[in-house]
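Dear colleagues,

As part of the handover before I leave the project, I'm documenting each prediction I ran so the next person doesn't have to rerun anything. This entry is a single chain, and its sequence is reproduced below.
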Amino acid sequence: MEKVTRSRVLVATVVAVILVIGIAAAAGAVPLFASGDSTDRPDDPSTEETVGYVEGYWYDDELDADDGADAVIDDEDDLEEVIYRSMARVEEIRELTFEEEVPVDVISREEFQEDHDDMFVELEEDEELQQNVTYEALFMVDSETDAEDEFEAMYGDSVGGYYDPATNEIVLVSDSPDEPEVDEVILGHELLHALQDQHFDLASYDRETIDQDAAKNGLIEGDAVTVEQAYDQHCDAEWECLPSAQPPENQVGDLNWGIYLLLMHPYEAGPEYVDSLLEGDDWSAVDDAYDDAPASSSDVIHTDEDREAGDVTVDDDSSDSWEQLETDDGLANETVGEAGMVSMLGSDAMDPLRSSVIEETDLLTADLQGVDYDQPYTDGWAGDELVTYVDSDVTDTDTVSTSEEAGYVWETEWTSEEDADEFADGYTQLLELNDAQVLNESEGVYSVDDGYQGAYALDIDGESVTIVRGPSVDDLNAIEDGVVAEDLEVSDDPDEPTDGDAGTDDDTGSDDADEESSDADDADDASEASDADNDSIPGFAASSAVVALAVAVLAARHKR
């Protein structure tokens, strides 16, 4: 399954699909890479060997299209001139030459919507099940929603352009293809992907997990965004460029913020990673990184550390009634990685109507210009594996029609016991925010009735945190033997102490428990009163303002 989604992301993220909702670049100062001195230009330049020169056009040439009233280019010859000059400008910034021309095609949005399904690998039934289980485990897609539909919704109306490595072609999607508006800086971003592909073969990287994909994209998109930012600054400072294109309408109404944050990681954390490799105007260390690309999203997030993730393997400790799901590609397993976990715990931070484990003030950078993926709950990540389980009596995945009927074991490793405890605390908060009922606190057993239905067991063992989910409490030990005590006492009433809980016969302990219960009731009453007045209280309005500003910045900064 997830291989299909990763194939999608290869098209949509590595290939730099431009989302109307905003592909965000990292905030902060951007190096303005020096342009060459025209007096040093060779007398006989060539496209293949001269940096900053393509098919007769230098990077600093002026074109008739620069003087237009808008960014519309309705003449094929004018578009060709713009493309060649943009190629030369990308070369000048990136200090590499194109090895061959890059075709650019303009299609209508209707044509894209009709044909874009062909860009994505079609899911087999077992792959679709694994995909749904994975994204339900991340609390991004509930058991009644198909993850495939969420990805489709993310791209269908939002794509402005992409580079397709299968055809070595850039496709611009326009609402008026006969008179397309060309955003020159976005074109430069896409051309940089073509340049990368010609020199470093983007299709050669392993992308078998969410984390691998985020890691490789961190380098690839970090490189592209850094070039894009420098390109934009040159247009403002010293180059004649096309007039700015009109920004598309904001389309963030039904955005899946969890998936959004996951896909945005390379664009947000990648530029800082690339900046850590740059030495002034020298790109050689960035070039070398393509031979030793980041292994995990943690490598991209923590540029000042030398991290090596452990090899986490989920041993099959299930009973005869459950088994690990197998797909055509082997075991249905997944590595989520640090970026995926941040996206999980921060997925509700941008929704003013919901509470979030990572709040928006912590998730966004201090200037609200981007997303900070270095978070205390997850910065101790050292590896993870999530394996999907199905009823062993089910021979056809048609019978297991939804992720609600499946299960999973998610084993995570951390650099210290403190880091493991911190992640477990964040995950427990996530369960509570999704209305989980505490069935047995000491055993870490929970139940969710709506949305992310099922029974959950949270087991902390030193530097390891294991999460097991099954359709019912009885299924937990059948999926992972020993994850809960055999004689587990489960209460249907969260206020009723269960075996091993805090309630005791000791008078002091009982008083403390009563006091805590009273405090909790007071807090619940205050919360309910607060919810009832949310439309008028200043705190709610302030939160909405922060979210609105963040969305506006992410959506408008680069006119996507």
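Residues 1-29, 497-560 have pLDDT under 50 and may be disordered. The chain has 16 helices and 15 strands.

All the best with the project,
I.
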